[in-house]
TrEMBL record:
Lineage of producing organism: Eukaryota, Metazoa, Chordata, Craniata, Vertebrata
Residue stretches spanning the membrane: 66-83, 89-107
Record key words, sorted: Membrane, Transferase, Transmembrane, Transmembrane helix
Keyword Transport: no
InterPro entries: Acyl_CoA_acyltransferase, GNAT_dom, NAT_camello-type
Name recorded for this polypeptide: N-acetyltransferase 8-like 2
Organism encoding this protein: Seriola dumerili
Keyword check for Membrane: yes
Length: 244
């Protein structure tokens, strides 16, 4: 989850827009609107699924690193020499399981903490001040309205500088790779421009390569990396994740 900054702001547009994704086989008509209290359960579910889907890529990226491959092979050899074929299987299996546990805990703890704190009261934390907002993407699927994405922004102050921080950008798999992420980010940028903010910043994890690529395409630049998360430092270190 590293920090990015965007100081080039797009021209203003209506942030409560409707778009039709013509290359979507379902031809969904999408409305980007402000969050309503009735959205809470669906937003919680989408957020939880959207964040936890990074567990497997995180685990795969860690285990395929040269260091972890070497550790796995070394444990396999040590298990065979110290015990038998069973030892050659058990020792590396324990190691692999431990790395998966770290990958799981990193993202699961993040979801648990966010649902317990700021997202527990979205109207109070994101909609009670004019410089904050929380949007959802609603689509009509089979005659029924469904939430397909979300994004939020919160005003921040640093000395005399006022800027916006983008939060909680999640898109349903049904609506990905269709330009919706770009539109949602632009809504945040336009919102911040209307309020005279100097820039937009955000954090994402190094595992979320698609998100990083999108933000870089939009013009964000990488300005900081750290390992401060809801999970213990040893978990973050073993999962080989940095916050951008």
């Amino acid at each position: 989850m590293s920090r990015y900054s965007w100081t080039e702001l797009f021209v203003d547009k209506d942030r409560f827009l409707q778009v039709v994704l013509s290359n979507n086989p379902l031809a969904m008509k999408l409305e980007i609107r402000r969050y309503r209290p009735s959205d809470k359960d669906t937003v919680f579910t989408l957020f939880s699924i959207g964040i936890k889907e990074h567990i497997r890529p995180c685990f795969h990226k860690a285990m395929t690193s040269p260091l972890y491959l070497a550790i796995t092979l070394a444990l396999c050899a040590a298990g065979y020499l110290l015990s038998s074929v069973l030892g050659a299987v058990v020792l590396p299996a324990v190691w692999v399981g431990f790395v998966y546990y770290c990958s799981y805990k990193l993202y699961a703890d993040y979801v648990r903490e966010r649902l317990r704190t700021d997202m527990q009261d979205i109207p109070g934390n994101y909609l009670s001040r004019p410089d904050d907002c929380f949007w959802v993407v609603e689509a009509e699927v089979d005659g029924r309205a469904q939430i397909m994405g979300m994004v939020a922004v919160m005003a921040k102050q640093s000395g005399k500088e006022k800027y916006g921080e983008l939060f909680r950008m999640i898109i349903s798999p049904l609506c990905r790779r269709m330009g919706l992420g770009f539109r949602m980010a632009q809504i945040v940028v336009d919102f911040c421009k209307e309020r005279g903010f100097s820039k937009v910043v955000l954090e994402t994890s190094s595992t979320q390569t698609a998100a990083v690529a999108l933000y870089e395409k939009l013009g964000f630049c990488h300005i900081l990396s750290h390992t401060k998360t809801e999970a213990p430092l040893w978990v973050v270190t073993l999962a080989k994740v940095t916050v951008l």
